[in-house]
Design brief:
The protein is of the alpha+beta class and about 140 residues long. Helices cover about 40% and strands about 20% of the residues. The protein contains 4 helices and 6 strands; from the N terminus they run H-H-E-E-E-E-E-E-H-H. Strands 1, 2, 3 and 4 form a 4-stranded antiparallel β-sheet that branches. Strands 5-6 form a two-stranded antiparallel sheet. It is globular and about 50 Å long.
Length: about 140
């Protein structure tokens, strides 16, 4: 068993900074917006060690899926490809009230950062659509 020391932590921070630098360079060079968004999600997932990631745009009071990635399910979707989004848009408001039932709409409306360890055991948000999609 290897014990992580100061040098290992420094190396990890250095790797993360290198990745952030690559993203900054891509931001200034990449002309295809969908490829750029996909790159941002890829690198964000790498930095956070996440199995999945999504990126939305706001369009007419709805969150629209732009990027959807899920490594365990082998899914990589980006808007602009030839197929339609595999998931429905999410309303930011329902009955003239903020829609806090979905984690994505909650985050968009509040600006809070949310980390959910296991969506299948979460009681705070509605993951029925995600569970249905996983099936």
């Amino acid at each position: 068993m290897k014990i992580q020391g100061k040098n290992d932590k420094f190396d990890e921070i250095y790797r993360q900074q290198q990745k952030l630098t690559e993203i900054c360079v891509a931001l200034s060079c990449e002309k295809n917006i969908f490829r750029l968004l996909e790159m941002i999600v890829d690198e964000s997932r790498t930095l956070t060690n996440a199995e999945a990631g999504t990126l939305y745009s706001v369009d007419d009071d709805k969150l629209k899926f732009e990027i959807l990635q899920n490594t365990p399910l082998d899914i990589r979707f980006r808007q602009g490809d030839s197929h339609e989004s595999p998931l429905e848009d999410i309303s930011l408001h329902k009955n003239n009230r903020p829609n806090y039932s979905h984690v994505s709409s909650f985050a968009a409306l509040t600006g809070e950062i949310i980390n959910i360890e296991d969506v299948y055991n979460s009681k705070k948000f509605d993951f029925s659509g995600a569970r249905k999609y996983d099936k």
